[in-house]
Design brief:
single chain; mainly beta; Jelly Rolls; seven-stranded antiparallel sheet; five-stranded antiparallel sheet; 3 helices; elongated; disordered C terminus
């Protein structure tokens, strides 16, 4: 519930700059819509997915079973599917990473949105941010995020006394999607 308070606070702050607006909440997803004078309708959204829960609120593949911290990526690639995305919105995906590949080195990855390459990076435990442009989100309400792990490791290969042969990359605790879109006002042309 604490996260909902902060999302609502952010949505309310956005609406303070609008001449009219509304906030809607649906489970782990909040959307604020407001009219900004001279610009048009602004839609902001925030969605939180807790990978420490049996059902994080999204579909996924390429992850291990639930552990106390969340889930490991358990192959060299994983995919997460989200719905209720604001179409044609700019998105920032924040991935809460609690551990990286068992060798202790940074985990290297390529990120994809709806099958299109977005970026490459490497991370240690912390937050990974992936910015997705509106043209990669598209005009539907569904989004798939794919991660290709470039250097996954098996714990047993690092330390033979650990009988864990899974191919691990990132230990994910949660994912938050932040989005916004702007529908510009059409100027009325007066007939002369």
């Amino acid at each position: 519930m604490k996260k909902n308070f902060f999302y609502a606070l952010g949505m309310a702050a956005m609406l303070c700059g609008c001449s009219s607006g509304s906030v809607e909440e649906d489970g782990n997803h909040m959307t604020a819509t407001g009219l900004v004078g001279g610009l048009g309708n602004v839609v902001m959204s925030a969605s939180y997915y807790d990978f420490k829960e049996e059902d994080p609120g999204c579909e996924f593949s390429g992850f291990s079973q639930l552990e106390n911290f969340g889930r490991w990526t358990s192959e060299d690639s994983c995919t997460i599917w989200f719905d209720n995305i604001v179409p044609n919105s700019e998105l920032t995906v924040k991935i809460g990473v609690v551990m990286t590949c068992p060798s202790g080195e940074a985990t290297k990855y390529d990120a994809y949105a709806n099958g299109s390459y977005i970026c490459s990076g490497e991370t240690y435990p912390g937050s990974v941010y992936v910015n997705i442009p509106a043209d990669k989100v598209g005009d539907n309400e569904n989004l798939s995020i794919g991660l290709k792990i470039k250097n996954p490791k098996r714990p047993i290969d690092i330390n033979p006394s650990i009988y864990d042969s899974r191919l691990l990359g990132l230990a994910v605790a949660n994912i938050t999607l932040y989005g916004y879109s702007l529908e510009e006002e059409e100027e009325e042309i007066e007939a002369e």
